[in-house]
Structure formats: C-alpha cells, structure tokens
Design brief:
Layout (H helix, E strand, L loop, with lengths): L1 H20 L3 E3 L7 H11 L5 E7 L4 E6 L4 E4 L5 E5 L8 H7 L2 H9 L6 E6 L5 E7 L2 E7 L5 E5 L1
Length: 155
C-alpha cells in the first residue's frame, strides 16, 4: 500500500511539473516581439497601435498580439504572420490580406468579389493558407497552396 501511495504522489508531482514547465501562455512585453512582427503592426495599424496584450504560446511557439481594435495576430519566432483574425462583425483590411497572401490567392478572392470579406487567414506550417470569408451571412473556406493556387473551397 505504501508503494502505491508513493507512486501516486510521484506521478502527481510529475504531472504538476510538466504543466508548469509547459504553461501554454506567457505574457510578454511588446518590445520582446521580433522586429518583423513590430514592423507589420506599425505598417498596418500605425506607429501608435493600441496593443492590449502580447502572449508567447510555448506549445505553438508563436506570439499572439491582441490589439484594442479587435484584431488578433499570431507571429512565429521570426516575426512572420501565421494568423490574422478580424474583429467581431468586421473584415480584415484589404491591405493586410494583400500583404499576407500570395498574388494568386488575392486575384482569386478579388475575382470572386470576396477580397473585402475575409475574416481569418491562417498560414499553414507546411505551406499554404486557409482563408475564411463571410459575405452576406455565407461563410466559405478556401485552401490555397504556398504559391496561392486554389486547392479547394467549400461552404
């Protein structure tokens, strides 16, 4: 019985240590962001962008920047955009869409008259993009290759 109790205590301690060592979110200051991330924010939101919170997500190895205007932007360790999420009930600014997506994807969305209806852009780790649009209450998802060619689109 003593062995089981000690074993249970050891296992509980290991679980606690693992959870502490890999806490998912750690608040960091804006100044700790990679330079490319800060340049992207300045370019699209101005020199005095209102940053609400910056977190480093250890499990995903990304920085999440929450702006007061409702945008959530994720950057990798080098400062490259890995996700842009628009504010509620708004769409991502066209200039941001053009900056994140390859020209082929931008052209496709423009021809479909969806360029100003993008709600979310995810940059996939293995290359490519997932773009979520919402036009007149019709949500559509598109998957593009890393060069911007359409792989598939669905409602």
């Amino acid at each position: 019985m003593k062995r089981i109790g000690k074993l249970m205590a050891l296992m509980a301690g290991l679980v606690l240590m693992a959870n502490t060592a890999y806490a998912d979110d750690v608040n960091v200051s804006y100044s700790e962001l990679p330079q490319d991330a800060k340049a992207f924010i300045t370019k699209h939101f101005g020199q005095n962008a209102k940053v609400q919170e910056v977190e480093y997500e250890q499990m995903e190895d990304v920085y999440t920047v929450e702006l007061r205007n409702g945008y959530d932007i994720k950057f990798d360790k080098a400062g490259k955009v890995v996700e842009v999420d628009s504010p509620d009930m708004k769409d991502i600014e066209v200039a941001i869409v053009k900056d994140v997506l390859p020209a082929k994807a931008v052209d496709f969305l423009s021809k479909k008259k969806l360029l100003d209806d993008v709600d979310d852009i995810k940059v996939l780790r293995r290359g490519g993009f997932i773009v979520e649009t919402d036009k007149m209450m019709q949500e559509r998802n598109f998957r593009f290759s890393s060069d911007g060619s359409l792989i598939k689109g669905k409602r």
